[in-house]
Here is the input.
Amino acid sequence: MALNFHQLHIFYTVSEKGSFSAAAAAMHMTQPAVTMQVQTLEEYFGTKLLNRSTKKIELTESGRMLLPFARRSIELMRETETEMARYTQKLEGRLQLGASNTIGEYVLPPLLVPFGRRHPDIAISLKVMNTTQILDEIARHTLNFGLVEAPVVHPDIISESVMHDELRLIVPAGHALAARASVTLEEASAYPFVLREEGSGTRQVMEDEWKAKGMDPRALNTVMELGSTGAVKSAVEAGLGITMLSPSSVKHELALGLLHVVPIEDASFKRQFYSVRLRSTLLPIAAVAFLNFLRDQQEAGTNPEGGARHE
Here is the structure.
């Protein structure tokens, strides 16, 4: 009998979760199957790896010795899949992912076209939802991974930067600032704002930069808070105020001259987009290929249509 990576993965997950039932749920397996695989691994090494005498599983001395090797084997497998996915030409299957509002509605759609041409046999199912919903569906194995606007700190989740973006000051056509080459943060603060709701990734990035510059975002004249980027765009276009949004979310309005981007000369609203996935689950090769594709697009500095990426 040869040493089995799958068994090492199960052993590691049981150790991290502290019970066979929790590991079974995380790996989408039955509890008897998890128990059997751990027992087979113990038979292979000829030693007991886990003590089952207490309610919570405890590692034996040999189990504690094996744990870092199991962790390294999983990390190496992930690295291997990440690198080899760049060379895999024939991929198929269903890729199920979730994305937060800005990413799902504005960033990903144009990227799905060239990815689909490269991998026509991958069927993509994209759900646009908030971060909490994405994490819930990942935990229930109904999504392979998610793309969110802020890192997630959770012991069961791996959060990695895959793309970056920058918010810009957006004003309606005919606004007093529309013809300006640039403005200061203080000048922009004098005008009414229409903002995303509290707790949104876009709102958080904006407020963090305001605070970093020694200004209180609560002092802004916020005339309206809205729950979607589309609603914010419509309100700004109607002249109700100005806002901070990603240029990727206002491409059409900019092209039509309905909205304008005004650079802020003394502040930068850069942010990262992150992939989130279960620590205990290896991503399917199609998901790894898609994340590599996103990183490659970012590094190339071009959008899907071949133009320069808007910094």
In short: Residues 302-311 have pLDDT under 50 and may be disordered. The chain has eleven helices and twelve strands. The CA atoms of residues 28 and 141 lie 7 Å apart.
